Amino acid sequence: MTDGISQKVWTVSELNEAVRDLLEGRFDLLWVEGEVADLRRPSSGHVYFSLKDAGGQVRAVLFRSSAAALRFRLEDGMRVLCRGRLGVYPLRGEYQLVVSTAEPYGIGALQRAFEQLKARLEAEGLFDRSRKKPVPFLPWRIGVVTSLSGSVLRDILHITSRRFPSIPLLIAPVRVQGPEAPPEIVRAVRDLQAEGLVDVIILARGGGSLEDLAPFNDERVARAVAASTVPVVSAVGHETDYTIADFVSDLRAPTPSAAAELVVPVRRDLLATVESFRDRLLKGMDRSASRRRERIALSRRRLRDPARRIADHRLAMDDRLQRLQRLLQGSALERRQRLIYAARHLQHASPGERIRREARHLETLYRDLKRNLETLLLLEKQRVQTLAVRLDALNPLAVLRRGYAVARRLPQGTLITDASALIEETLVDVRVAEGGFRAAVKETYRS
């Protein structure tokens, strides 16, 4: 030491180690209250955050195992009370609070945790009515998860034995208070539903403070109840007490005694109901039997002598047989006529017959045409001969051959029909039957 100043040269690691030893020696477990800030949740599962107040802040870490045990979810801005010890992170030379547990700060700390868990499980749908399983009307064995001490179990035993003494109960003793209670309750619920030991479970506890009822607000208990394949009836605390187990259970009873009454029917009432049903059934059977007897009697009266009925049926059958034969004969005759008509029609419509018929028709037409043509030819011939005779009669040559002649004035060539129009020496052309000649007029005269 020189001038009160140490001459030792420290390495950084040595200094950090010395500071850690100093802090851990000076501060054991301690509680720190502050507001959560800069919260981070990396994939490792650890939770890193800062605790701050108006005058400063300190870094904190909540390792994964401790974080999983929290009954609420840390959030930025939340005011919490953390329990832990101070440590030094050598790589950065920072000190931090290694938190082992934390709870919301103030009087409503547990209530805050309760509300957080309730909201989260509700968001997951664990409170949905559709998930609720019906409680059996008459259970054959009831499982009871509760403490062996206290009046809860006695009340349940008393009520079940009074209402229906033959229904057995299978008791799963657990602690219902303290940190050891949640895992015991979870194990008891799972054991009871295994291998079908019971068909309904009553989860019961007497009244208490919010802290006393904390095991029934534990997330592990809530999920075990929700996952139970056997209906669970929660009966925790008094009528005004609500726990998370009440919300996830299939049926909530206001008290353990009420749970026993809800699960176990009154044997006497059931017997009375069964007796009532039996009476109604017997009366119904009597009425049914009476109606059947009446029907049988009526049927017997309506039923005639079997031999007579057989004879009637035989006559009916004979009649039907005759009708059938007539129908068959008529049908055969009709079909035969149809066949003959079809054959005739087919024969008439055959190509050979049609050709022969058309040939005969053509031959007839030919003969008629020939005869008509011959007649027409003869008529035309006669008409031509007549015309020829008439024409021949009108032929000027024929007139000339009878000795007549045709005279024409030359050179005009005009016919001479009046001899007075001629003068002597007029040249004329005379046409006779065979040829003609020219001459000069010597004299004219009147006939």
Q: List unreliable stretches of 5+ residues.
A: none
Number of strands: 14
Classify the beta-strand content into a percent band.
15-25%
Helix-strand topology string: HEEEHEEHEHEHEHEHEHHHHHEEEE
Structural class estimated from helices and strands: alpha/beta
Assembly status: single chain
The helix content is 40-55%
Rounded to an integer, what's the Rg over CA atoms? 71 Å
**Total of helices:** 12
In this structure, how is the largest beta sheet organized? 5 strands, mixed, barrel
Average pLDDT value? Answer: 88
Distance between the termini: 214 Å
**What is the molecular shape?**
elongated
Care to give the gist of this entry?
It is built from twelve helices and 14 strands.
Description of the molecule:
By secondary structure, the protein is an alpha/beta fold. Helix content is 47%, strand content 19%. It has twelve helices and 14 strands. The chain has helices at 12-26, 64-69, 109-123, 152-163, 181-193, 219-227, 244-248, 256-263, 267-302, 306-348, 351-394, 396-401; strands spanning 30-40, 47-53, 56-62, 79-89, 94-104, 142-146, 169-173, 200-205, 232-236, 251-252, 406-409, 414-415, 427-431, 436-440.
Give the tags.
5-stranded mixed beta barrel; single chain; 447 residues; 12 helices; alpha/beta
Would you spell out the secondary-structure blueprint of this structure?
Blueprint: H1 12-26, E1 30-40, E2 47-53, E3 56-62, H2 64-69, E4 79-89, E5 94-104, H3 109-123, E6 142-146, H4 152-163, E7 169-173, H5 181-193, E8 200-205, H6 219-227, E9 232-236, H7 244-248, E10 251-252, H8 256-263, H9 267-302, H10 306-348, H11 351-394, H12 396-401, E11 406-409, E12 414-415, E13 427-431, E14 436-440
Parallel strand pairs: 3-5, 6-7, 6-8, 8-9, 9-10
Antiparallel strand pairs: 1-2, 1-4, 2-3, 4-5, 11-12, 11-13, 13-14
Helix pairs in contact: 4-8, 5-6
